[in-house]
Specification:
binds uridine-diphosphate-2(N-acetylglucosaminyl) butyric acid, four-stranded mixed beta sheet
Length: 419
């Protein structure tokens, strides 16, 4: 087993290269299975455990993958199995995209119900509502979701909640449906747009991704293409926040600054300097000057829930009282108990957390309770006085490529140890 050991206190200087977006990659890989002609060559796939897990799942149903660094070539021209039921399928949340992809291509899919981070109830009612509107019969039995249709026919679908997963999943199926589908009240996240762009490059006809209405004209088949996944907004945000918390000056490279606006604006409000270049941001910070702020997590372009946990660490050392309202996931404060062990002053009441800034955190033995909680613990360890040990770090490797090397290159004292 592995743990992360951090000696806090170093300021961060230098450059960090951001990898491809996890939440785009985990949808684009299943989408590549919809291609019946030619190979899809996809660049900038992040080296994270969720992607490795998905690779095994794709191979288990008959997809072929060749890898060259972060470039994946996917060949799904041979007939695929429409049943995905391995242990890996149950492990990761994004397995649900196999339903949309296989239903679109084969009008039939059976997928074991997915796992993922324990951050709240994770219903699939909106996915199901969308598939049913397209003409599929959907059943949930014995821990599996089964969707079947004689044919899929375009429909008008108004989602009850703004959901990344159901927007992408229904878009996948509708791409190969007959006629036009109009999806309303959809998620506008950069990864939704990225998946739509990928599908269009393969011959789909999707318009409006990035707004709250997506129009899809169904096509008969998709063909192979070359594509590059967008940079990871959440990984970038994590390094921006880490720099703000540790102090120093770091260039966050290979990003789309527009995707970072809600985070940049909050950091500026706290007194952090954010300089915007074409495809990078320079963060300069003096932690003793940080001021308290309030955040409410919201769908894009609001403040992302996936950055809330790292941000809470920064708030824990900012002068004054900061308030977080978590509007997306009801159990995304599990890391607060770990943060308290390090000296943070936090009161959690339902979906609200109130943090009274303290001058410093102190090293402790803590756990990564989920993926972004793990990133939060790393930042906490980097700013704490003395030694921090983080256990259960497998969660972190689900979503952060080379995290210890990236921080080491910026001057942090962080290493992996076996135990
Ligand atoms: N929801 C429903 N019904 C549904 C689907 C969702 O009520 O059928 C609700 C959820 O309970 C939640 C809200 O809608 O309150 C938003 O959920 P969404 O569907 O957007 O979440 P998701 O697709 O399951 C993705 C990311 C999460 C990220 C959320 C929100 C992937 C693989 N996961 O999850 O990422 O928090 O969107 O942006 O894309 C992470 O990367 O750490 C992570 C958890």
């Amino acid at each position: 087993m592995e743990k992360l050991v951090i000696h806090g206190g170093a300021k961060l200087y230098g450059e960090v290269e951001i990898s491809g977006a996890k939440n785009a990659a985990v949808a684009i890989l299943p989408a590549a299975l919809m291609v019946s002609k030619g190979k899809s060559v996809i660049e900038n796939i992040p080296a994270i455990d969720d992607v490795h897990c998905l690779e095994r799942i794709i191979e288990s149903i008959g997809g072929k993958i060749e890898k060259n660094g972060s470039t994946y070539s996917i060949d799904a021209t041979d007939e695929l199995k429409v049943v995905a039921d391995t242990e890996d399928v149950r492990k990761m949340r994004a397995s649900y995209y196999l339903v949309g992809a296989l239903l679109g291509r084969y009008k039939s899919a059976k997928v074991e119900l997915p796992g993922g981070c324990a951050i709240g109830v994770r219903p699939m009612d909106q996915h199901i509502k969308g598939f049913e509107a397209l003409g599929a019969k959907v059943t949930m039995e014995h821990g599996s979701i089964t969707a079947k249709a004689d044919k899929l026919i375009g429909a008008n679908i108004f989602f009850d909640v703004v959901s990344v997963g159901s927007t992408i999943n229904v878009m996948l199926a509708a791409t190969l449906a007959e006629g036009q589908t109009v999806l309303e009240n959809v998620a506008r996240e950069p990864h939704v747009v990225d998946v739509a762009n990928f599908l269009n490059t393969m011959g789909a006809d999707i318009k409006g991704a990035g707004t709250d209405v997506i129009r899809i004209n169904g096509v008969k088949e998709l063909h192979g293409c070359n594509y590059s996944v967008i940079p990871d907004q959440i990984e970038a945000g994590t390094y921006m926040i880490a720099t703000a918390a540790c102090g120093g000056r770091v260039t966050i490279k290979n990003i789309i600054p527009k995707h970072m606006e809600s985070i940049s604006a909050k950091l500026e409000e706290m007194g952090v300097q954010v300089e915007e270049l074409d495809d990078s941001l320079i963060i300069t910070s003096e932690p003793s000057q940080l001021k308290a702020v309030n955040i409410k997590t919201l769908p894009y372009p609001g403040f992302p829930t996936d950055v809330q946990q790292p941000m809470s660490v920064l708030m824990s050392i900012a002068k004054g009282r900061s308030i977080i309202n978590e509007s997306i996931w009801e159990s995304r404060f599990k890391h607060m108990d770990e943060l308290k062990k390090m000296g943070a002053s936090v009161l959690v009441e339902g979906r609200t957390a109130i943090l009274e800034g303290v001058p410093k955190l102190s090293g402790a033995t803590v756990r990564a309770t989920d993926l972004r909680a793990g990133a939060a613990m790393v930042i906490a360890g980097l700013i704490a006085e003395g030694k921090t040990e983080i256990y259960d770090i497998e969660h972190i490797y689900r979503g952060y490529p080379d995290i210890e090397d990236k921080f080491k290159n910026l001057g942090a004292d962080i290493r992996i140890e076996q135990y």
